[in-house]
Specification:
Pdz3 Domain; 7-stranded antiparallel sheet; globular; 4 domains; alpha+beta
Length: 530
């Protein structure tokens, strides 16, 4: 059975490439008979053209690259979410969807010309070998990784169980240590955090939807139940989506048996329904779903399924607006196409897919329009189409046509400075500054107990000033320290926490100064008292 994906994901030779792509697709799926005689002639003609270029053109031509460009051009003219996966990308994409890969288990960035370890995966090969955040990897089996044109992580990849020796430079040392590491299966975590926000309210942060997400999410639910959770909040902010079934499994945790969660329609208008089962652990308890403008596809499936069944409360800002379903099909040479094969609809019958008539660039940059029209600050600025109005079984008004509008609106960061700092919180900028600190004067933190770090560690002024100076680079000259000091300190401490103790602690710390989390707690208390 082919997997279906809901994923938030660019004209050279369009004419002849169309024939090649269609020919490959139909051949892969055993549908060559669908071609008319004329179609077969065109396909052979186009394939012949590629052969002639390959054999007779005056210069050497990489016809594989021509085909790749052509296929990309074709798919760009279909919809924003139909994509081509080249043979070079195929393994990484497969790993991402599956939720694991073979490697040494590190998060890293290239610092100047050297691989610097941000953190190690818990119980992974590198952690077991004694590698820590702040370490720099200089060699693999004696071959240098540093220097011009030398930095490539390909040498770190290999088969599971194979062994390599890393040359590692630790903070404060001048000796390069030779550390043997055995490659292994590394889980790509979907659940960043699962902990109790209050005595009653459990919290789960989910960053993606992969094949492994269901098992991770179920474990998180079990942890919270054992800790006494009577309510649960699922944070899907900035979650771009992924595997459809994982989203349906998540929604099933909160919906009763036989409740419609979603339906799909293909090109022939054939309908496929997805219903909840009786397996949910929180069917009779309050649930909250957190979304924002970057919550897409599978995240929207969950939010839409619950909202249309009058289950729980959706908190945040209007979601991205993707209602297309992709199916991955192999093209026979290791490459694949992830093609839109259906539209999905929430239980009330609404499509939340945004229009894409103006092209892919405008489609993916639509958030700029949301910013300019004030939607991110005021719910009343959200444009709705009354012809796309629907009612839930309880009579609540919901809209199709572009994302899930939350039940409870929480404004985004206001003003340039707050938006810049929010961007820093969601990207790796602060991580790099913190990692440099760990390699130098902060190396002692690598041995500090987590409780001591949480309870008593304060970010030094020198680190704050270094972050501030680097943050003001580029287009951020107007960024001020006054009024932002407390959040900058928290952001740096959270980045250090992730590199030292794991992502969950980073999430916990950032949540202490998060307006949406504050509003969530208010709603939780109100629900408890009713």
């Amino acid at each position: 059975m082919k997997k279906q994906y809901l994923y938030y994901p660019l004209f050279l030779g369009i004419f002849f490439g169309l024939g090649i792509l269609i020919g490959n697709l139909l051949s892969v799926n055993g549908m060559d008979d669908a071609f008319t005689t004329s179609g077969n002639l065109k396909k052979r003609k186009l394939n012949r053209l590629i052969d002639i270029i390959d054999q007779r053109y005056v210069d050497e031509v990489n016809t594989d690259s021509i085909v790749d460009v052509t296929v990309n051009g074709i798919l760009q003219n279909l919809d924003p979410h139909s994509i081509y996966i080249s043979t070079d990308q195929a393994q990484a994409v497969a790993d991402d969807m599956r939720g694991n890969f073979v490697g040494i288990g590190i998060r890293y960035f290239v610092n100047e010309d050297t691989i610097s370890v941000l953190s190690t995966i818990k119980d992974g090969p590198s952690q077991k070998a004694g590698i820590k955040s702040g370490d720099r990897i200089l060699t693999v089996d004696g071959r240098p990784l540093y220097g011009e044109n030398k930095v490539s992580t390909d040498q770190l990849k290999g088969e599971s169980g194979s062994r390599i020796t890393l040359g590692v430079l630790k903070p404060g040392d001048s000796t390069v240590f030779k550390i043997p590491v055995t490659r292994g299966q590394i889980a790509i975590k979907s659940v960043d955090a699962a902990y109790m926000l209050t005595n009653e309210l459990g919290y789960i942060k989910v960053n993606r939807f992969a094949e492994s997400t269901t098992a991770e999410f179920n474990r998180a639910i079990d942890i919270l139940k054992r800790k006494g959770a009577q309510q649960v909040a699922v944070d899907l902010r900035d979650n771009p989506g992924g595997v459809l079934q994982a989203a349906l499994d998540m929604a099933d945790e909160f919906l009763k048996d036989d409740q419609l969660m979603l339906f799909q329609k293909d090109r022939n208008n054939k309908r496929k329904n997805s219903y909840a089962t009786s397996d949910g652990d929180f069917e009779d308890k309050p649930v909250f779903i957190l979304i924002n403008e970057n919550s897409a596809s599978a995240s929207e499936v969950v939010a839409g399924a619950l909202q249309d069944n009058d289950k729980g409360t959706i908190i945040g800002r209007r979601s991205f607006g993707k209602g297309l379903v992709q199916q991955e099909m192999q093209l026979g040479d290791g490459s694949a196409v992830r093609l839109t094969v259906a539209r999905y609809y929430t239980p009330t019958g609404r499509s939340i897919q945004r229009p894409y008539d103006s092209g892919n660039e405008d489609y993916f940059n639509e958030y700029l329009e949301r910013y300019e029209n004030g939607e991110l600050q005021d719910k009343s600025n959200i444009e709705v189409n009354d012809s796309l109005m629907y009612k839930t079984p309880a009579g609540k008004i919901v809209y199709g046509g572009g994302g899930i509008i939350p039940d409870v609106f929480v404004a985004g960061p206001k003003g340039y400075e707050n938006q810049t700092l929010d961007y820093f919180a969601r990207t790796g900028f602060a991580d790099r500054v913190a990692n440099d600190f760990l390699r130098t004067e902060g190396s002692y933190l690598r041995y500090m107990p987590e409780k001591e770090f949480v309870d008593s560690y304060q970010v030094p002024e020198t680190l704050l000033l270094e972050f501030y100076q680097r943050a003001r680079g580029g287009n951020n000259k107007s960024l001020r320290l006054t009024g932002n000091r407390e959040f900058m300190m928290l952001l740096l401490k959270a980045s250090l926490a992730e590199q030292l103790y794991g992502t969950e602690l980073k999430v916990k710390l950032l949540n202490t100064m998060d307006p949406m989390i504050d509003r969530l707690k208010e709603l939780s208390r109100d629900r408890k008292n009713t």
